[in-house]
Design a protein that fits this description.
The structure holds two protein chains of two kinds.
Chain A: E1 2-5, E2 8-11, H1 18-25, E3 33-36, E4 39-41, E5 56-64
Parallel strand pairs in A: 1-5
Antiparallel strand pairs in A: 1-2, 3-4, 3-5
Chain B: E1 6-8, E2 11-13, E3 17-20, H1 27-37, E4 41-48, E5 68-71, H2 79-93, E6 97-100, H3 113-125, E7 129-134, H4 138-146, E8 152-154, H5 168-177, E9 182-185, H6 191-200, E10 204-207, H7 209-212, H8 217-237
Parallel strand pairs in B: 3-4, 3-10, 4-5, 6-7, 7-8, 8-9, 9-10
Antiparallel strand pairs in B: 1-2
Helix pairs in contact in B: 1-8, 2-3, 4-5, 6-8
Classes of the chains: A mainly beta, B alpha/beta.
Chain lengths: 66, 258
C-alpha cells in the first residue's frame, strides 16, 4: 500500500502495524517516536495500531539542538 | 555554602548551566564538552529520522549518563507545529518538560510571542511543564507565567549571535517580578556574559553556540561552568552599589608626617 512516510510517498507491505513498519525499516523502536495523521502513537500501541493506505506517518528522533 | 539548588517541573538541580547539543563538529567532542560543563539538563531537538542512514538515531549514546534531556520545539513557526513537536518529544523522552520555542523571524530567530503564548496555554493544559524561550520583555514574561509556565527563559540576545546580555535592565525587571524561575537563554558569547546573567539574578543560563563553536569547546564548557558558578556566588554575596566617586580602601588618617 502507499503511505506518506516522513513527507515522501512510499510503498509498504499491506496491513503493517506501527511496530511492523519500524521492523520493516530496520529502525530501533525505543529510539524513535511515531505520529500517524498528526497524532502520536504511543509505544504501548505499536503492536495493535494498523497503518492504512494513504496514512501520513512521521518517524522522529532526537538530534542535536539548543 | 549550603547546597544551592533550583527546581523546575518537580525536579531539583544543582548545576545552573543548561547546554545544547547542536553545532558540534563531532559527537566525541560534544560528549567531552557536555561532561566539562557540569550541566544536568541538556537540550535536544526533534526531527524526522533520516531513513536512508543506518544509526541516524544515535545522538543519545553520546550524552553522558545521568543528564536529563530537555526536548525543544526549535524551528517551529506556529503554535500548532510546536504543540505537535512537544508531544513527539514527550513520547521520545517519556517526561513532560519541554523547552518551548516558536520562532517569528528566520533572520533574528526572535520568538513569535503571540504563537508562543497560544502554544504555552495548550501545552500547560496537556500537563506539560513548559519552559518558554521568550523575549527580554517583561509583559510577555508575565503573561507566560500567568499561563502556567514552569519557568521563563528570556533571551540575552539573538540565538547564536554571541552578543551577550543586551538589555540587563529588562532582564532585572523580569527577574524581580516573576515568581517562577527566570533563566537567560540565548545570546551568551563568552564567560563574562554568563556571569553577568547570573549576577543579575538569573536562576540558570542556557547556551549552545558559545560552547559548541568555540575554538576549544571542552575548555569553553569548563569556563562557562565556572562563570555561572562565580556569577551565582556574586549574586548571593550581594555586590556593592556603584558610586560616582572613590571610597578609599586604606585609612586616610595617621599618615607619617601628618
Amino acid at each position: 500500500m502507499q503511505v506518506k512516510l516522513n513527507g515522501e510517498i512510499r510503498q509498504i507491505p499491506d496491513g503493517l502495524t506501527v511496530g511492523g513498519l519500524l521492523g520493516h525499516l530496520g529502525v530501533k523502536a525505543e529510539r524513535v517516536a511515531v505520529e500517524v495523521n498528526e497524532t502520536v502513537v504511543t509505544k504501548d500501541r505499536y503492536a495493535s495500531y494498523h497503518i492504512g493506505p494513504g496514512d501520513s506517518v512521521e518517524i522522529v528522533a532526537f538530534v542535536g539542538g539548543g | 555554602m549550603a547546597q544551592d539548588t533550583w527546581s523546575v517541573g518537580g525536579r531539583t538541580f544543582s548545576s545552573r548551566l543548561l547546554v545544547g547539543t547542536g553545532k558540534y563538529q563531532d559527537f566525541p567532542t560534544m560528549k567531552r564538552a557536555l561532561a566539562g560543563s557540569g550541566a544536568e539538563l541538556v537540550t535536544v531537538a526533534v526531527r524526522r529520522l533520516d531513513l536512508s542512514k543506518k544509526g541516524a538515531e544515535s545522538l543519545l549514546q553520546w550524552i553522558p549518563e545521568g543528564m536529563t534531556l530537555l526536548p525543544n520545539t526549535a524551528a517551529c513557526f506556529t503554535a500548532d507545529e510546536a504543540v505537535r513537536t512537544a508531544r513527539l518529544g514527550r513520547e521520545l523522552e517519556m517526561g513532560n518538560v519541554v523547552k518551548l520555542a516558536v520562532i517569528g523571524d528566520r533572520r533574528i530567530l526572535f520568538p513569535d510571542v503571540e504563537e508562543l503564548l497560544k502554544a504555552a496555554r495548550a501545552l500547560v493544559k496537556e500537563g506539560f511543564t513548559v519552559l518558554p524561550y521568550t523575549t527580554d520583555e517583561p509583559v510577555t514574561a508575565q503573561k507566560l507565567e500567568d499561563a502556567g509556565c514552569g519557568a521563563v527563559m528570556a533571551l540575552g540576545a539573538s540565538i547564536g549571535s554571541g552578543l551577550g546580555i543586551r538589555n540587563a535592565y529588562n532582564l532585572r525587571i523580569i527577574m524581580e517580578t516573576a515568581k517562577v524561575p527566570v533563566l537567560v537563554d540565548a545570546g551568551v558569547g563568552t564567560a563574562s556574559d554568563a556571569s553577568l546573567a547570573m549576577e543579575l539574578g538569573a536562576v540558570a543560563v542556557l547556551m549552545n553556540t558559545a560552547i559548541a563553536e568555540a575554538k576549544d569547546p571542552v575548555l569553553m564548557a569548563e569556563a562557562m561552568r565556572d562563570a555561572v558558578a562565580a556569577g551565582r556566588k556574586a549574586f548571593l554575596a550581594g555586590r556593592i552599589p556603584m558610586k560616582l566617586h572613590a571610597a578609599a580602601s586604606s585609612p586616610m588618617t595617621g599618615l607619617v608626617g601628618s
